[in-house]
Amino acid sequence: MRTSLKKILTAALCAGVIGVPIGGVDAANPSDATNSSTSKIKVENLKLVKDWDKVFPKSDEVNHRKVTFVNRYGITLAADLYEPKNYSGKLAAIAVAGPFGAVKEQSSGLYAQIMAERGFLTIAFDPSFTGESGGYPRFVASPDINTEDFCAAVDFLSTLPNVDANRIGIIGICGWGGLALNAAAIDTRIKATASLTMYDMSRVMANGYFDYDKDSATLAAERQTNRENLNRQRTKDYANGIYTRAGGVVDDPSQMPQFVKDYYAYYKTPRGYHKRSLNSNAGWNTTTALSFMNMPLLTYIDEIKNPVLIIHGEKAHSRYFSEDAFKKLTGDNKELVIIPGANHIDFYDNTNKIPFDKLEKFFRDNLK
Question: 110, 261, 326, 339: which could join 253 in a potential S-S bond, CB 3.0 to 4.6 Å?
Answer without folding.
Answer: 261
